[in-house]
Every structure is written in C-alpha cells, then in structure tokens.
Amino acid sequence: MYKLGEFKQLVKDFSDVADFLVVYIAEAHSTDGWVFANNVDINKHQNLVERLAAAQFLVKQDPLCPVVVDEVTDTTGTKYCAFPERFYVLKAGKVIYKGKMGPWGYSPEEMCSFLEKMK
C-alpha cells in the first residue's frame, strides 16, 4: 500500500505498452503476524473466503488494473518468489523482467526504466 500511488502512475504512464495485473498473495503484515504501525487490519488468511475479503481492501483503493487472488496454498506467490511484493513483466508467456523482492527491492522507478525501453 505504501507505494500504491507510484504503481498507479506506472499504470497510467505505460498502459499503452503493457497490460497490468495485481496478484493478491499472502498478507505480508497481518494483524496477527508481523505488524507495523498504521497497518491495515487484516489477519492471516485461513481460507479463500478470507483472502478474497482482504483483497477487496486493495480493490477499493482502485489500483487501475485488474486484481486477482492467489490460492490459499500460495501457489503463485511461491512460484514467482513474490512475497511480500515483486514486479514481473511477461511477454509471450516468458519472464522478461524480474524486479527485486520487496519491500526494499520493490522499485517502481526501476520498472519505469524497463518499460520506457519497451516503448
């Protein structure tokens, strides 16, 4: 959520170059887990219904692109080493860009530079 504004700017600036999609995975800072000050009040998801409900918080923030939800078994998050967050660019089914793992490696600026080259 911290860099959602920067993500939205990427979507605005590069929607002519790429289709954007957010995959909502396991909650990185659940209320009953690793908590930060000013955290969103979301517990660790015990089932798909809870994960879908938690993803609605993100949807309400209007990320300007579709939001899909990973399985509770974290299949996508695990395959893409995406926890807690990460950028990927796929072309013709192949990964052509893999950003560093968040939160410290999550870089909208780096993604912007990569997408600029695709214009």
TrEMBL record:
Pfam families associated with the record: T4_deiodinase
Keyword ATP-binding set for record: no
Keywords linked to the UniProt accession: Oxidoreductase, Selenocysteine, Thyroid hormones biosynthesis
Catalytic activity: 3,3',5'-triiodo-L-thyronine sulfate + iodide + A + H(+) = L-thyroxine sulfate + AH2; 3,3'-diiodo-L-thyronine sulfate + iodide + A + H(+) = 3,3',5-triiodo-L-thyronine sulfate + AH2; 3,3'-diiodo-L-thyronine sulfate + iodide + A + H(+) = 3,3',5'-triiodo-L-thyronine sulfate + AH2; 3'-iodothyronamine + iodide + A + H(+) = 3',5'-diiodothyronamine + AH2
Signal peptide: none
GO function term, MF aspect, one: thyroxine 5'-deiodinase activity
InterPro entries reported for this sequence: Iodothyronine_deiodinase
GO BP terms: hormone biosynthetic process; thyroid hormone catabolic process
Function summary: Responsible for the deiodination of T4 (3,5,3',5'-tetraiodothyronine).
Entry similarity comment: Belongs to the iodothyronine deiodinase family.
UniProt name for this protein: Iodothyronine deiodinase
Organism, scientific name: Salmo trutta (Brown trout)
